[in-house]
Structures are given as structure tokens and as C-alpha cells.
Amino acid sequence: MPVMHRSSTPVPDSLARRLEETVGTEHVLTEPSRLMAYESDALTSVRGDPAAVVFPGTEEETAEVVRLLHGAEVPFVPRGSGTGLAGGAIAHDAVLVSTVRLNRILEVDPQSRRAVVEPGVVTDEISAAAAAHGLRYLPDPASGSTCTIGGNVATNAGGPHCLRDGVTTDHVLGLDLVLPDGRRLRLDRGDDGGLDLAGLVVGSEGTLGVVTRIRVRLAPAAPAVGTALALFDEVGTAGAAVSRIIGEGLLPVALELVDRNTIRIVEESEFAAGLPTDAGAALIVESEGLEEEVEAEVERVRQVLEASGAPGVEVAREEQRRKQLWQARKKAYGALGRLAPDILVQDAAVPRSSLPDLLPEIERIAEEHDVTLANFFHAGDGNLHPNLVFDRRDAEQLRRVEEASAEIMELCVEAGGTITGEHGVGLDKREYMSLIFSDGELAAQRRLGRAFDPDGRCNPDKMLPAPAGGGPTGATAE
Ligand SMILES: Cc1cc2nc3c(=O)[nH]c(=O)nc-3n(C[C@H](O)[C@H](O)[C@H](O)COP(=O)(O)OP(=O)(O)OC[C@H]3O[C@@H](n4cnc5c(N)ncnc54)[C@H](O)[C@@H]3O)c2cc1C
Fold first, then answer.
1. Which residues, including other chains, have CB under 8 Å from residue 116's CB and lie 6 or more apart?
2. Pocket test residue of 58, 62, 85 for ligand 1, highest count of atoms within 8 A of CB
């Protein structure tokens, strides 16, 4: 986890004027006091002021902005809402190209069950617009009320309800991309043959260009929903129950775990859901489908949870109670903000069957390094989110957090896991990439990036580490 705060070299006046002519004076920021608001994403330990922030309002303006930056040989970084947790949307000595004005839902077509949206649309707004037709957009990152669909595409975002229905890439039908030299591409996914370039762009973390339009799949709204809440004495027992549910052949839409510390912290906040603060962990399990299917699945889930050591299982039937439980889970990150100014979120995905052993081990590592840990995560996917809470101004505390974070990461990789389940690599996990990929595999990824971005100026330094033996980092370095 690199810790930095740097100011950027300002963009030349002539470039700033050309950018203003393209998007309007009020849509270009260059004053240092206003740039500070863009110094980090939600990973606050990695900071750097951009050289400027530009807010194009159309696809054409976006392409022209990128063309101008390319002509001036100035690097740039696409940015949505800045809720990313990997330091992917920060720019030092680079210009931020913000998509927040590209926020139109262009089409919702109930016949083909598709929507066409601009990248700055807030994720939850797609479902809100589709609801009039009895449809919804399935991926639901916990940040859905603030993050953008463009950011979701760039990080291949997941969410609590991705267990059964898949992550962002499973719902993207096509996209438009402004290449790093300003040219525009339309990329569709279908049976026409050729490489799945849209699929390549999903998850490329803004290193291949700016996504300016997205065509997404919509699904019918669920006729019925049932949510079960189970409390456990120990986090390891809750972890074992997760595998048991899946092992019984059940596939709920969501299976989320919150640990002891999270319960305590949430219950002290405005998001309290009345969970007992002496519980060791809680599981939230949600089923969707036809009324009878949901009834049957919730009943089987309840039996498995009780057989796995949950003393009692609550089945939330009222919409209000369901919302309360989900708020406790989805707003847990916000509640953590009351403890300390900084949070480092780990994002490893591990084999589900390793959860009973790993979860107590992660708690042990946090204790050993004397750091505050709260774990709430997509347990059904084995996608852990150990949150380490700290104050980066305390160098000694920061060192302990870094050590604990590295140990947790290594533990997860040793257990057969990955370094990121859904948040992406960004700057934060770049140095861990070699735990997963060989030199040859990393070089192949760099070469592929260079096909889109030969000059290495599109979100430079993100995702891929510097090659062994030195040299530039980033998706486009050799
Ligand atoms: C409370 C909280 C809960 C969260 N829960 C989840 C969760 O459940 N699941 C999950 O997956 N993530 C989650 N996240 C992380 C984050 O919300 C996601 O990574 C989200 O997809 C980022 O969207 P954004 O608009 O904020 O993107 P940003 O943070 O602005 O950018 C993220 C990355 O996308 C690139 N990018 C953004 N827009 C574009 C574009 N138009 N074209 C090309 N590249 C682009 C940026 O360069 C950067 O690399 C959570 C974060 C928070 C703070």
C-alpha cells in the first residue's frame, strides 16, 4: 500500500484554454484548492492532487478532451464517483476526466430487456428507471447509491446479490470506448465471432480508455423475496454454515457475513438493526423467486443454519425489516467512519470451504498487530472484506496496518485465493500481482494494454507492477 500525497505539475495554460473551449470554462478545474477534493478515492491512504479535472458533457466532448490531452502528451485518468477502494481513480501529474456529467439513461427497452446508459449514471438509478417496466439491473454493489455504472464496468463490480446472478461483466452487452488517442470504438458482445473486446474492457480499471456508453441487460423484478438472519457465537461456525448451505444444493441470491466487531459498530450507529451486540457473527441469506419457491428455500436455509449451530433464525417477511437488515450490512462501511479517519479494505476472494479456518486466523492477525478489524463480506462468493480502521497520521499505527494487511493477503493467497474479488487492483494491490501471475503472464497483460494505449498515458501506473529489473509500471509498460 503506497502512502503518498503529491501535488501535480499544472497543465500548460494553452491546454487549459483548449479544454475550456471544449467543455465550458466552468467544467475545468485547475485551482489547487478545488483539486484537493479529488486527491483520493475511498482508499484514503493513497493521495495525489490531479493536474486538472475536466467534466465533459457528451461523448463527443469526451473524445475531444482525450484527443487534446493525447496531442499535448498529458496522461489522464477516467473517474466516476470516486468510491473505488483500490486507489484506481487518482491522478498525479495527470488530468482527471470525470464522467459525472455523462449521467443520462438514454433508453430502457422492455421488449429486449436492455438499457443504454452513460457511464456517469449512478448504479441504483438504472433499476429505478427500469422499475416502471417491472425490470431491474441485477448487480448491486453496496455502494450502488453513489458509485457509477462506468466505475462498475471498469472494476467489474460485484455486490451482495451477485452470488446467484453474476457480476457486472455478465450483464454488459456492449459499450462505447474513447481510446487513449481520442478515437471512438463501439464494442458489442454477441455471436458474431472475433475477440470479446468489450469483455476485455470490463475490469480493465480505466487503463484502456474512457467508457462513454454502456448497453446492459435487464431482468424481471423478483416476484417474492425472503431474508433469513442467523446469529452465531463464533465467526468460524458462521463460515462453516456458508459452505454447508451451498453443499446442500441451495443457491440463495445473497449470502453475507458480518463479524462481531461490525455488529457492535453498526449497532452503535444510526444504521442499527437491533442485532445482539454479544453475537460472534451474523449471516444474512436472501432468496428470490416465485412465492412458493422462496418459502421452500427459506425453510431449507433455516434448517441448515440451525443444524450448523445458529441458536435461532429470524425470517424477515416485512419489507421494512428486510431493508433494515440490508442497511445494517450495506452501510457498515459508513458506520466504521466513526471510529477513525482511514479504512483499508482487503478484497481477497478465497475458496468458500476455507472460510471456517481463515476467519479466526484473520482475527488473530489483527489482534497480533493491535489493529481494529471489522469483517463484513460476500461470504457466498468467498469474497472477504477485512476492514482495517486507522489514522494514517500515526506512522506507527500505519505500519502495523500495512503489516497486518500484507499478512492477511498472503494467508488468503496461500489458501488458494486471489488478491481482489471485486474492487480491482489500482495502486493499492499492484505489488501483490506477482503473487498471482508469473512474469510471462504479467508481460502478456502489458503487451495487450499497449495495443490500446501505445504511449502509456491512460491511467498510468495502475494495475500492473513494474517489470522485474525495473522500468515503467502500468498496463502499457513492457
Ligand atoms: C461503502 C462502499 C461499498 C462498496 N461496495 C462494493 C461492492 O459491494 N462491490 C464492489 O464491487 N465494489 C464495492 N465498492 C467499491 C466501489 O464502489 C466500486 O469499485 C465501484 O465500481 C467504483 O465506481 P466509481 O464510479 O466510484 O468509480 P471510481 O472510483 O471513480 O473509479 C474506479 C475505477 O474505474 C475507472 N473508471 C471509472 N469510470 C470509468 C469510465 N467511464 N471509463 C473507464 N474507466 C473508468 C477509474 O479509472 C478507476 O480505475 C464499495 C465502495 C464503498 C465505498
1. 105, 106, 107, 213, 214, 215, 216
2. 85
- Which atom of ligand 1 lies closest to the CA of 422? 11
Residue 429 belongs to a domain: no
* CATH code for the domain in which residue 25 is found: 3.30.43.10
Tell how far the Cα of 316 is from the centroid of ligand 1, in angstroms.
30
Give per-residue pLDDT as tens, 5-23: 567 788 999 999 999 999 9
Distance in Å, CA 151 to ligand 1 centroid = 4
How far does the centroid of ligand 1 lie from the alpha carbon of residue 352, in Å? 24
Nearest by Cα to 156 from 100, 114, 113, 208: 208
Q: Is residue 239 part of a domain?
A: yes
Write out residues with Cβ below 6 Å of ligand 1.
Answer: 41-42, 77-85, 88-89, 99, 119, 141-143, 147-148, 150-152, 154-155, 157-159, 205-206, 210-211, 333, 422-423, 459
Q: What is the tally of structural domains in the chain?
A: 5
Same domain, 216 and 120: yes
Domain shared by 113 and 192, yes or no: yes
Report how far ligand 1's centroid is from the alpha carbon of 118 (Å).
15
Helices (H) and strands (E) in the chain, counts: 16, 20
Domain carrying residue 72? 4-98
CB 410 within 8 A of CB 297: no
Residue showing cell 492477525: 365
Distance 368 CA to ligand 1 centre (A): 31
d(CA 186, CA 197): 10
Burial (CB count within 10 angstroms: exposed 0-12, middle 13-18, buried 19+), residue 199: middle
> What spacing in Å lies between the alpha carbon of 438 and ligand 1's midpoint?
27
72, part of any domain: yes
Say how far apart CA 465 and CA 297 lie, in whole Å: 45
Q: Is residue 321 part of a domain?
A: yes
List the pLDDT tens digit at each of the 478 positions of the chain.
Answer: 544 556 778 899 999 999 999 999 999 999 999 999 999 999 988 888 999 999 999 999 999 999 999 999 999 999 999 999 999 999 989 999 999 999 999 999 999 999 999 999 999 999 999 999 999 999 999 999 999 999 999 999 999 999 999 999 999 999 999 999 999 999 999 877 889 999 999 999 999 999 999 999 999 999 999 999 999 999 999 999 999 999 999 999 999 999 999 999 999 999 999 999 999 999 999 999 999 999 999 999 999 999 999 988 999 978 999 999 999 998 999 899 888 999 999 899 999 999 999 999 999 999 999 999 999 999 999 999 999 999 989 999 999 999 999 999 999 999 999 999 899 999 999 988 998 999 999 999 999 999 999 999 999 999 999 876 655 454 444 4
CATH code of residue 408: 3.30.70.2740
